[in-house]
Specification:
This protein has one domain: Gcn5-related N-acetyltransferase (GNAT) (Aminopeptidase, 3-Layer(aba) Sandwich), CATH 3.40.630.30. The strands form 2 sheets. Strands 1-2-3-4-5 form a 5-stranded antiparallel sheet, sandwiched between helices. A 3-stranded antiparallel sheet has the order 6-8-7. By secondary structure, it is α+β, with helices and mostly antiparallel strands. Helix 1 crosses helix 3. The chain binds coenzyme A.
Length: 172
Amino acid sequence: MKIILETERLFLREFVPSDGFHFFYLNNDPEVIKYTGNQPFKNLEEANNFILNYSEYNKYGFGRWAVCLKETSEFVGWCGFKFDKDSSEIDLGFRFYKKYWGIGYATEAAKGCLQFGFLDLNFKEVVGRCYIENKASINVLEKCNFKFQKNILYDSKQAKLYTFKNDNNKKN
Ligand SMILES: CC(C)(COP(=O)(O)OP(=O)(O)OC[C@H]1O[C@@H](n2cnc3c(N)ncnc32)[C@H](O)[C@@H]1OP(=O)(O)O)[C@@H](O)C(=O)NCCC(=O)NCCS
């Protein structure tokens, strides 16, 4: 198990094969995937295969990471980056089990990722996108000091594009 970073209450680690279970149950909750454009996995096997074939760490040196509670090591969700090789954009994303919403874990994990991305991985810019109805996600991005850029169409839906640039990091 490779731990990537720690925050006050959380640690973020690379995915392990048994996380397929969590991916299956996370995406199986209609409220969790409502604003993500994702579908539930067909079955546990499909989720397991997704994790087994997850190659971002090897390809790019970063990716999405499992977010776990320091106290119990429990998996509560995921947070981290996704590299788009066509646009060279690095996107920050997050998704948590519903029972853990509203207690600041997404903001805490996202801030930890940004610090790691800019200080350790030397990122210049990270983008965040969310559907306009996804108030929780907008709040997380704004609490992390992402700057609103423009309204966009994302998966054919009205969405907002935010960016976080290296300069922001220096000022804060
Ligand atoms: C988006 C998500 C990750 C936020 O996680 P979270 O841990 O609940 O977020 P936080 O607790 O850090 O909350 C951040 C802020 O948003 C607010 N917030 C949380 N849920 C909210 C909601 N449904 N509506 C409005 N504001 C909300 C919080 O109150 C907090 O602001 P505050 O500190 O001023 O009170 C979580 O709701 C989730 O997993 N959603 C499903 C997946 C998803 O939509 N991912 C993003 C796709 S772009």
